[in-house]
Amino acid sequence: MSAWFIALLQALLCVALAPLLVGWVRRVKARLQNRRGAPLLQPYADLHKLMIKETRVAHTASPLFRVAPYIVFVAIWLACATVPLIALDLPTAGIADIIVLVGLLALGRFFLALAGMDVGTAFGGMGASREMLISALAEPALLMAVFTLAMTAHSTSLVGVMEHHLTDGFLLRPSYLFAFGALVLVALAECGRIPVDNPSTHLELTMVHEAMLLEYTGRHLALMEWAAWIKLLLYGVLIVNVFLPWGIATVFTPAALALGLIAVVVKLALLGAALALGETLMAKMRLFRVPGFLNLALLLGLLGLLSHVILEVGA
Amino acid sequence: MSLAVMPLLQQFVVLLAALALFLSFVLLAQTRLVAAIHVFAWQGALVAAVTFTVALTGHAGHLYFSAILTLILKALLIPWMLHRLVRRLGLERHTERLRHPALVVMAGVALVIFSYWLVLPMVEQGLAFTRNIIAVSLALVLIGLLMMVFRHQAVAQVLGFMSMENGLFLAAVSATAGMPLVVELGVAFDLLVAMVLFGVFFFQIRESIDSLDVDRLNRLTEVE
Amino acid sequence: MSDSPLVLALSSLWLALGSSAISLLAGREPRLLRLAAVPLLGLAGTAALVAGLWTLIAETNASAILPLGLPWLPWHVRLDPLSGVFLVLIGLVTGAVGLYGRDYVRHFEGGRESLITLGGFSGLFLAGMLLVVLADDAFVFMIAWEVMSLSSYFLVAFQHEQAANRRAAFLYLLMAHVGGLAILLGFGVLAAFGGGFDFASMRAAELTPLWAGVAFALAFLGFGMKAGLAPLHAWLPEAHPVAPSHISALMSGVMLKVAVYGFIRVVLDLNGEVHWSWGVTLIAVGGLSALVGVLFALVQTDLKRLLAYSSVENLGIVFIALGLALLFQSTGHPNLAALALVAALYHALNHALFKSLLFLGAGAILHSTHERDLDQMGGLLRRMPWTGSFFLIGCLSISALPPFNGFVSEWLIFQSALQAWNLESGVLRSLVPIASAVLALTGALVAATFVKVYGIAFLGQARSRHVRRARPSPKGMWAGQGVLAALCVLFGVLPTQILGLLDPVAEQLLGTGVPQAGANGWLWLTPISAETASYSAPLTILLLALIAGAAIWWFKRRASWRVRRCDPWDCGFAAPTPRMQYSAASFAQPIRRVFALLFLIDEGQEQGADGVTRYRLRIADRARGWLYLPVARAVDSSARQVARLQSGSVRLYLGWTLVTLLVLLWVIS
């Protein structure tokens, strides 16, 4: 029973931490660009403001437009809740393995794209079309990286992968290195970060994610934004906890859980700072450069798999 | 041999070899000449690092020497010469469009699998580690050749040729702990001479066909 | 007792024939088609469903010899678990089509097309499919197969006034017969070694590896052609869309699966030993079909054509899974082979459900708007809420999104592909995951395709006047769709039960099932073991509903629950018009550009008769030019050669007869 309780706690923690991560990235980015930037907790205030504001819906919108934010939010939250954040081996991890997780994210994206097309303006369709292009190319790369991990651990469950990594100790696995690279590139593309998409742009012709949200206001917008932040957190946790699982709680004692929390927060803070640095150094690319970028991710995934088969297994 | 039971230094060799393979792919798809030369330099440095690591594990003392030789020659001297050539030919901003980069890269992946299939019959347990590295080296050679097939630009072709040599060297180092020193010196000298000759040739080619696109060499035919 | 399912199945066959017979009277009394023939079709489907379920649950195995056919070769029929699964598949779709068809065929009444053709051949078509599944000797099998092919030819040619439909039907007939020939030769090889045309003696035959390979190749060619695998798929997107929509549903949803059945029957049941290279061939061809199918589906603007291309893709997925099953079976991992086989069957069932659902939805749109072109649609969700909701479920299922059914089967295929580390050969170990990367790419592209379909057709604003005035479809039609939609959800949420039903097939064919899949209780689907992978569809949907409910409840308590309607954002310029929306072609443009290599694109502007310049985009299938036209041309020219015999002179004909007689006498002397 306590395991289910901790699982619930962890699920709530995902939702609570996501705005903090975004605030942190924005803050570091602002500092790197010699701006003062908004306070660390600004995203929470933004969410609150959006929640209490009046919600407006276009005349041309269908019921799907109003349902979509809930589905997007819930699907991504559920996906995030199945990722081990502070403790391994929670019962929620059995609900979904990595492939189901990818599927849940795809469910969210499906409704996001549909919602973009619902009002019937040009921007929504444009955003949806581009989003589906990016996701179509990112998905094989993501699964290739995932398969590399799964072939090593003989399991597609995240818990299995992390446990395998923990028991193996530190090995110089080229496959992990490549899978890491692939996962980082995919995460940048899927979360709509520079160089694939710019989360802070409102320049109409370059938008991808924002174009789909253009018609949303009030609580609907809050849910959509929050969902996007949770997704960023999810990919962050996936990257740090799969490749550097050390520190995560393997037993459910308060001390271990506290250590797990501290470890993941520190790891995420470092990753967030790296993201901010990367976004400061890089420029956004043209849309039709994105396939090349994701091709690189796919190549990394493939090389990860091949180096696993050729160099690591022997036999 | 499974990676989990290898000593750390061997793991390191495996890692470096995998990275060298990755750089071969980057070289294959890199459209900017200057960036490609840098990638080549890094690959040379990786091969030197492999040599150095093998020297650490083995007893062949002369490998230290050949590691340093490789580093100086492939990571510094040849890239520097190429860089200078590119500058003198005014090609710093030259980019070359591959027709279907994704397909070329996939062909490279297929070559990797093919070379693995080729070395599979070497089943002796003791050779497993060597065999896997040889698979990677063979892939380096084949990808270098693939690059020479798909690139039009003469400088890029030279890069492909040089990375083939990297593959051969990697195979030699990991399979037999390096060649005799005399042979290695000879090969190094050959490379240098080749490099000088390439430089001369580039100017000659450009003199006669006004471009370094090797596809235009067919203009040199005497009968119309 | 164990014969009762077989009796039921045979009676469903008679019901189908009865439906066909009643339709003969429809020329005089058109209402008969709607009131008797179509409901009988549904009834036949229900009977087949019950017979199939009975077989699977009781795990019976019944056979009989019918007093029909040749004196030395009476008709053998048999109902085993493999036939049972496909009876269930046929039954589910036909039942729903029976519900739907009653209102759908109504608009053919008073039309120019013959109702006798429609009703008569529909019944024959169903009877043919049922008999293929029940056949227990090659003779019955081929007769049933030809009945199925020929009657569906007449259904494709139903609206034959348009030249394009006639061409499609001819192409279909041609390919069906090339395929049929290959199957016949395949049976010939098996019969030669087995010493008889009944399946029992073929099963007992010991084939040499070479001839087993030949039999496999022939079966793969024949059944693969019928299943629409690339690069022989070009007939499918021509033929399936031009039949009436409920028949398209049967063709895409069911007939392609009958080809899968035939393939499994011949290769896994009759042919005995399998070779690993067969598995690799299947995976390669399946992967190619999946990718080609979905990319061409993505760029279509005709809704029914798009759905037909997506059938190519789904059959590709089924064959990838079958390839995995063969690969694992040949390398001595029967338990993994069982998993892959069950995944293939599961996907076949799922595809039958969601593809029929989508075709019925397309039929409903066609019925209300007389429109198949996506670029004329828009905003249909508000005009046809029921059809729109069911179509959404179909789109979600086909895009393999949890917690719907398509996801479960694709997940199972991924799981069995990831067991590739068990294989000894390193090359296979690396190739199989790459095949699954192709599957992943396909999955994502399918999602893009169906976002496009749903977004363009049902969301946004209507792009033409008659779509703006669309009326909801009649009750019978949405009831048919509703049944299929409910089944899609059910098959997605209760995978352990479905796997339990499919298990006997694996036991029958491979000697081992997948008992571990439901070992941790019905909540958890664990294809290998709980540590390796687990998925809980019931909990997924429960949690999704709970959290969404909680969020809505939380917002509803607050004063700001009501929303205010406003105009969409117009950038401060003129209000957006429907023609400013993204169209089907523009939605697909980025992906079309990335995969440009595959398409033959003719793009430009052209001046219409009214003097207006229009954008022109035609995307052709390369396979057609490479493979089909040469074959068609060869057949055409050889037919012309043969036609020389027909000079019109009676004496010449008699001369030919005399020569033939002499040759024959010389041969037998």
UniProtKB/TrEMBL annotation, chain A:
Domain of life (superkingdom): Bacteria
Cell compartment(s), UniProt: Membrane
Keyword Transmembrane helix applies: yes
Source organism of the structure: Allochromatium humboldtianum
Pfam assignment, any one: NADHdh
PANTHER family: FORMATE HYDROGENLYASE SUBUNIT 4, FORMATE HYDROGENLYASE SUBUNIT 4-RELATED
A GO CC term attached to the entry: plasma membrane
Membrane-protein topology: Multi-pass membrane protein
Protein's UniProt keywords contain Transmembrane helix: yes
TM regions (residue ranges): 6-25, 67-87, 93-112, 133-151, 171-189, 228-249, 255-278, 290-311
Name of the featured protein: NADH-quinone oxidoreductase subunit H
TrEMBL record, chain B:
Keywords carried by this UniProt record: Cell membrane, Lyase, Membrane, Transmembrane, Transmembrane helix
UniProt keyword annotation of Membrane present: yes
Transmembrane segments: 12-29, 36-57, 63-82, 102-120, 132-151, 185-203
Subcellular location: Cell membrane
GO (cellular component) term, any one: plasma membrane
Record has Membrane as a keyword: yes
Membrane topology: Multi-pass membrane protein
InterPro entries linked: HyfE-like (IPR038730)
Primary subcellular site in the record, as a coarse category: membrane
GO molecular function per UniProt: lyase activity
Top-level taxon of the source organism: Bacteria
Protein name: Formate hydrogenlyase
Origin species: Allochromatium humboldtianum
Automatic annotation (TrEMBL), chain C:
Chief localisation class: membrane
Membrane topology reported for the UniProt record: Multi-pass membrane protein
Keywords: Cell membrane, Membrane, Oxidoreductase, Transmembrane, Transmembrane helix
First and last residue of the signal peptide: none
Transmembrane segment boundaries: 6-25, 32-57, 82-102, 114-133, 139-158, 170-193, 213-235, 247-264, 276-299, 306-328, 348-369, 390-414, 434-457, 478-502, 535-555, 650-668
Subcellular location: Cell membrane; Membrane
Entry's Gene Ontology molecular function annotations: NADH dehydrogenase (ubiquinone) activity; oxidoreductase activity
Pfam family, one: Proton_antipo_M
Stored InterPro entries: ComplexI-like_HydComp (IPR052175), NADH_UbQ_OxRdtase (IPR003918), ND/Mrp_TM (IPR001750)
GO cellular component, one term: plasma membrane
Domain NADH:quinone oxidoreductase/Mrp antiporter transmembrane residues, every copy: 135-420
GO annotation terms (biological process): ATP synthesis coupled electron transport
Name of this protein: Hydrogenase 4 subunit B
